[in-house]
Design brief:
Elements lengths: L2 H5 L3 H24 L8 H25 L1
Length: 68
């Protein structure tokens, strides 16, 4: 998910995105440890980046709220 898409979301949508992404990352880590490996090894890196982008957008929203 691109930052431009994430930037347009509301605070509630961002927190839900972070929560869902963390759950997905946990499941990916569990699959990696429990089985022989992941089919899509690149997905964990993508999910970590989505979490970081969403948290950045949350911080930006908080800063804008304090100014306005």
């Amino acid at each position: 998910m691109e930052y431009q898409e994430i930037k347009t979301k509301t605070a509630d949508e961002l927190s839900q995105l972070v929560l869902n992404s963390k759950k997905e990352l946990f499941n990916l880590r569990f699959q990696k440890a429990a089985s022989a490996g992941l089919e899509k090894t690149h997905r964990a890196k993508q999910v970590r980046k989505v979490i970081a982008r969403a948290k950045t957008a949350q911080t930006q929203l908080k800063k804008q709220g304090k100014k306005g």
